[in-house]
Design brief:
This protein is mainly beta. The chain contains no helices and eleven strands. The strands form two sheets. Strands 2, 4, 5, 6, 9, 10 and 11 form a seven-stranded mixed beta sheet that branches.
Length: 112
């Protein structure tokens, strides 16, 4: 059974950093692009970042460009999201996604 598990969320002050992880199990995802999405309270889920299977192409939402960095380790079937210079508007549940598979999310709260 395919499973994605996010971790690394928590409470951080504005300007701080967090590193999210997404561990994939049940199959090999090394040939697929992987994505991060987020959903803030009362808002729709939105795209954050994506990374190609060879890590040669990354894409970011304008709102996080220059502050977040996506990466992956295909040997460990794990994807990461390094988040720096966090802002209160980054507060959301962050989800890992591969094709039609979603994790349950990890909550990031940024206090002002």
């Amino acid at each position: 059974q395919v499973q994605l598990v996010e971790s690394g969320g928590g409470l951080v002050q504005a300007g701080g950093s967090l590193r999210l992880s997404c561990a994939a199990s049940g199959r090999t995802f090394s040939l697929y692009a992987m994505n991060w999405f987020r959903q803030a309270p009362g808002k729709e889920r939105e795209f954050v970042a994506s990374i190609s299977w060879r890590s040669d192409t990354t894409t970011y939402a304008d709102s996080v460009k220059g502050r977040f960095a996506i990466s992956r380790d295909n040997v460990r079937n794990t994807m990461y999201l390094q988040m720096n210079s966090l802002k209160p508007e980054d507060t959301a549940v962050y989800y890992c996604n591969i094709m039609s598979t979603w994790g349950k999310g990890t909550l990031v709260t940024v206090s002002s």
